[in-house]
Amino acid sequence: MSADRTPNAAAAGTLAVGDLEVTRLGFGAMRITGEGVWGEPGDPAAARALLRRALELGVDLIDTADSYGPEVSERLIGEALHPYPPGLVVATKGGLVRDGPGRWRADCRPEHLTAACEGSLRRLKVDRIDLYQLHTVDAAVPYADSLGALAALREAGKIRHIGVSNVSVEQLAEARAIVDVVSVQNRYSVGDRGSEPVLEACERAGIAFIPWFPLAAGRLARSGGPLDAVAAAHGATPAQVALAWLLRRSPVMLPIPGTGSVAHLEENVGAADPTLADAEFAALGAAA
Questions:
Q1: Per the count of CB atoms within 10 A, which of 71, 76, 218, 280 is most buried?
Q2: Containing H/E element for 44?
């Protein structure tokens, strides 16, 4: 994109998430915390400014979780953006707990999820969370019990919509038999397409697919590789091309690249601008 043109997420188009309409390029707020997604960021004021800049660039979906920090990301979002402007969707997740930097474990017991949701409501300063996602599948807890807890929270008016994360096709089907699932958040990128069957299931059902780690381009990101070639042709960066590939891949795709840097945020939002030719899209897909 032109260096003198301010990027805007609206160029990516929109997508329905339940009865909510959002731009197809959101912001993942995991990296506004400390190292290892643990504790406070080095500069909390800069983290709050980054969140405000995301909104200025047209981002209207911010994805977080109670485990980011833990609690730090949600609190910073509430401090920086509340009262939230009309149309902004703040999505969060529950079901993972932390024992230290870089350490994560599942806890999807109904009582934990209920307490986690209440904590998220307080930190985000809202009475209802627009999109609450079950962060993982807990092998120690029947999936139906975990989803039943979220259904009860929705019935109580604490949750507007329910999403699931880190699921297989079979688990998604099980979830949909219990609750109305409006989104799936799985690891997926141009270089890591292990969740392709889940994406295809989301396409068939009209469910938003939110890829996490969307810039994991693998060997495509090597210097002089396919991403570099396409990026050079568009005057873009390899990261922008990787995100543009995702946007082209499916109409239900909703990438949420995260960063702690305003410059990288602006670069990521600029991914809404490059339009990949059919041959470029196919070549990147084949090279992965």
A1: 76
A2: helix 44-56
Neighbours of 16 (CB within 10 A): 13
**Of 39, 163, 40, which is closest to residue 103 (Cα–Cα)?**
39
Say whether the peptide bond before residue 197 is cis (omega within 30 degrees of 0).
no
The pTM score is 0.95
Instruction: Mention every residue, 6+ apart, whose C-beta is less than 8 A from residue 253.
Output: 24, 199, 209, 211, 246, 247
Residue 2 has pLDDT above 60, yes or no: no
Distance CA 101, CA 92 (A): 20
The percentage of the chain sitting over the pLDDT mark of 90, rounded to a whole number, equals 86
CA dist 84 and 237 (Å) reads: 32
Q: Report how far residue 174's alpha carbon sits from residue 51's, in angstroms, rounded to the nearest whole number.
A: 35
Catalytic sites, residue numbers = 68
Give the Cα separation of 22 and 58 in Å (integer): 10
Closest CA to 146 of 126, 116, 123: 116
Percentages helix, strand, coil for the chain (3-state, rounded to 5) are 45, 20, 35
* Phi and psi at residue 182, to the nearest 5°: -105, -10
Query: Which CATH superfamily includes the segment(s) 16-216+251-259?
Result: NADP-dependent oxidoreductase domain (3.20.20.100)
Structure tokens at 202: 């989301």
The whole-angstrom separation of Cα 231 and Cα 240 is 8
Q: Is-contact 164 175, C-beta < 8 A?
A: yes
